[in-house]
Amino acid sequence: MSDSDPQYPVSGAGLGLRRPLADKLQDIPQGKIDFMEIAPENWIHVGGALGKKLRYFTERYPFLIHGLSLSIGAPVPLDEQLVRDIKAFMAAHNILMYSEHLSYCGDDGHLYDLMPIPFTEEAVKYVAARVRRVQDILEQRIALENVSYYAPTDASMSEIDFLLAVLQEADCDLMLDINNIIVNSINHGYDAHEFMVRMPADRIRYFHQAGHYVEAPDLRVDTHGAAVDEQSWNLLADAYAHFGPVPTLLERDFNFPPVAELLDELSHIRELQRDARQPEAVNG
């Protein structure tokens, strides 16, 4: 498998475009960033100077969008207008794919946080039906992200069995977040590598990679506000060895370092991808 496989919407190493970074990224030499990703809610219906700035990037890079507020597991009706707005936004900017969090973020209003869906068979069917409706409106498949969580509301099923069941029932794709596997494995006491290798290879469309905050030896907080740590790099290398050099998006949401440091992390992603392409050495 290579990162040019048609199952992937993009290839290489990408960077999340955040407004504080936009001006600094305009003069980056070609080839330093392979693709970009944004949250559509932060850019839909934005015009003026910011709208022109977004157009500058979408004309130069392949783009993906990663939603924040569809709230796919919420008890309230699905926000179909948001889905229609996303469809129009994707068409206007030639966006290649839409992914969302397997979580919810509100009931009667937004909570501004990603809450865990109960791990139950009932929730599988409920969420899957909503995902299928989203795909019907968009007229294309979406990818769901394995999310970080801290206090499960119902653990009738394991996290991994719930995730796999939703993907199967909804017949949708997977955007696999490597850092979230590390965070959850430490917080909930399971083996990160075993979780990773059980992911369905044919549903993976790309990876996320990010840094987290170490609250305690047994507690990590998914912040996207730090450099990627050694455990996450090691699991990413393992994932490439298992699945091939899947396209990977680096997330950084605050505590922005100099752009050169972000580009160094992208270079490291490419190095790991290149290593995964090399044939195994044969001992003579």
Count of separate DSSP helical elements: 9
Shape: globular
How many separate domains make up the residues?
1
Could you name the CATH topology? TIM Barrel
The biggest beta sheet is recorded as: 8 strands, parallel, barrel
Q: Would you list the SSEs in sequence order as H and E?
A: EHEHEHEEEHEHEHHEEEHEH
Mean pLDDT: 90
Return the CATH architecture. Alpha-Beta Barrel
Helix content class: 25-40%
Adjacency order of strands in the biggest sheet: 1-2-3-4-7-8-9-12
Q: Looking at this structure, what is the CATH superfamily? A: Divalent-metal-dependent TIM barrel enzymes
Write the layout of secondary structure elements.
Elements: E1 13-16, H1 19-25, E2 35-38, H2 48-58, E3 63-66, H3 80-93, E4 98-101, E5 104-107, E6 109-115, H4 121-138, E7 143-145, H5 159-170, E8 173-177, H6 178-188, H7 192-197, E9 204-209, E10 213-216, E11 219-221, H8 230-243, E12 248-250, H9 259-277
